[in-house]
Write a structure and sequence with these properties.
Blueprint lengths: L7 H6 L22 H10 L3 E6 L13 H11 L11 H7 L3 E6 L8 H24 L4 E3 L3 H9 L3 E7 L10 H8 L2 E5 L24 H13 L2 E3 L5 H10 L5 E2 L16 H9 L3 E5 L2 H4 L3 H13 L15 H21 L5 H15 L4 E4 L18 H9 L4 H26 L2
Parallel strand pairs: 1-2, 2-4, 3-4, 4-5, 5-6, 7-8, 8-9
Helix pairs in contact: 2-15, 8-16, 12-13
Length: 433
């Protein structure tokens, strides 16, 4: 039996907010290659925000191994002040004009029982701890933002910015009170599911539904997220769960890292009906830069599938990923990452032009006010030309080359997401009255 907050049932029955959705604005016509200096100047002026950067629970260690070789490798993998093996660290952020990222509390989908929920919550808390530890240790470089105003203030101060998102609601188990606790720890969005159906709703994989969309618990959890001020994230959700979440939520909904199905027919991407539903509620699609979601290459997909299985990671599309401890998962992903360059060489991955095709399509269908960017860095994301934070200017260069203005680019990089975040705050504030 899940526990119900006394205000949740009332909140769930309140009428939906009437949010105005502008007519879709067609993407600008393609132009000649942009002047690099002009594009870079635009990039340096806008606030860049990425809604999805995965982390390891060992991020920002307080102590290092004594052995010099072990210490060097440890720093390369976990010390954010070192330009190391992660796609996002402080030097890469500075080099690429990559100002702000949602650092992700991700826990792989496990068993829907008390033991599974307990393990998931413990893993989630380790990642919350890591983000807070990073900000505490390196507060002169990076700050934690829990409101859009704080994002903008930290940017004006010249600091890097960390926000917190939860990729999968699985760690809350059946305890709705944990949603407010997650908010108290800084989480400002939470997803319904990951790969595999959760207790809150159906995932995009496997295709056979468990709940027919959202579960009853998932419906009440959305009302509680609205009440406390956590953005509802529908990336990884099934089509039915996504559409139900958008309809049910009293606040705009985000897709933290999803592409356009019309550009690449992948189950992780949103079709035009889904895009229109999300925009009608005032939401935003943060286009994802994970190569498989950006552009389909059957030979590459088969090579990756086979390599994942060899590394003991299962097949994410059909929910066969094994239940692992955080240490086991990291060891297997380390092997997986080490083998990916060979696959990339044989089967080149999607590039920045392919990525911006998704942005173009979203703008064409639902307008410039409903699109943003979510890389999925350090969680599988990365494309040719934008493979880590240091290459972020290449995205702006491609946008400029296609005729997007500085005002439009500012909306894509951060303005739209910050607007949605503020709308979510307003709904939460109204709920308290």
């Amino acid at each position: 039996m899940f526990r119900l907050h006394p205000f949740v049932l009332v909140a769930a029955l309140l009428p939906a907010l009437a949010l105005h959705c502008q007519e879709p604005t067609p993407p600008p016509p393609a132009k000649a290659p942009a002047d690099t200096k002009a594009a870079d100047a635009i990039h340096d002026r806008v606030l860049t925000l990425d809604t999805h950067k995965d982390i390891d629970p060992k991020l920002a260690p307080e102590s290092l191994p004594d052995d010099p070789k072990t210490r060097e490798e440890f720093q390369r993998r976990y010390d954010p002040t070192v330009r190391g093996s992660q796609q996002v660290d402080f030097p890469k952020m500075r080099a690429g004009g990559y100002d702000c990222a949602f650092f992700i509390v991700y826990v792989g989908q496990g068993q829907l029982n008390e033991g599974g929920y307990k393990r998931a919550l413990a893993e989630a808390n380790k990642k919350f701890d890591a983000i807070h530890r990073m900000v505490r240790l390196y507060g002169d470089t990076i700050g934690l933002a829990t409101t859009p105003d704080e994002v903008e203030r930290l940017h004006k101060e010249g600091k890097l910015i960390a926000c917190i998102g939860i990729e999968n609601g699985y760690p809350m188990g059946e305890d709705l009170s944990l949603i407010a606790q997650f908010h108290g720890r800084g989480a400002r969005y939470m997803g319904i599911a990951h790969n595999g159906h959760s207790q809150l709703g159906d995932s995009h994989t496997p295709p056979e539904p468990k709940h027919g969309g959202l579960s009853e618990l998932g419906r009440v959890a959305i009302a509680e997220m609205n009440r406390v001020g956590i953005m509802v994230d529908i990336s990884h959700s099934s089509r039915a769960a996504m559409l139900q979440a958008v309809e049910l939520s009293r606040a705009p909904v985000i897709a933290s890292h999803s592409g356009a199905y019309a550009v690449n027919a992948h189950t992780r991407n949103l079709d035009d009906e889904q895009l229109r539903a999300l925009a009608a509620k005032g939401g935003v699609v943060q286009c994802v830069a994970l190569a498989e979601f950006v552009k389909t290459d059957p030979a590459r997909e088969e090579a990756i599938r086979a390599w994942r299985e060899e590394c003991g990671l299962g097949r994410p599309r059909d929910g066969t990923a094994p239940e692992l401890t955080a240490e086991e998962r990291e060891a297997r992903y380390a092997k997986y990452r080490a083998g990916m360059p060979a696959i990339d060489e044989k089967h080149p991955k999607a590039n920045v032009r392919d990525f911006v095709n998704h942005i173009d399509h979203v703008v064409k269908v639902i307008g410039i006010d409903h699109v943003g960017i979510g890389s999925d860095f350090d969680g599988g994301g990365g494309i040719d030309g934008w493979n880590d934070a240091s290459e972020s200017r290449n995205v702006t260069r491609e946008l400029v080359a296609r005729g997007y203005t500085e005002e439009q680019i500012a909306k894509i990089w951060s303005g739209n997401l910050l607007r949605v975040w503020r709308e979510v705050e307003k709904v939460a504030a109204a709920s308290k009255h």
